[in-house]
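User: Hey, quick favor. My workstation is busy. Could you predict this chain's structure for me?
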Amino acid sequence: MTENIPLSPSLYDGLDPVPQPKSAATEAFEALGAAVDRAKAAIEAGRRPGMPLSILTNVAREAPLGSLLFAFLIGIAIGRRTR
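Assistant: No problem, here it is.
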């Protein structure tokens, strides 16, 4: 009998590689990409028939000058409140 008992390999040896640290720019780009994806999903959800963006698009398509006047008046009202 030999006294040399083979040691079993470490349980996590090679299964979980050490993650490489990410640069701040890479993390910022990933966060920006995730925010853009969420914004796209929200816009697409709002464009479904009967949703607010769909209604607004239809109104602006049928009466572009009236929509422009309405947006202008809302802009003036908001601008005066912030002063």
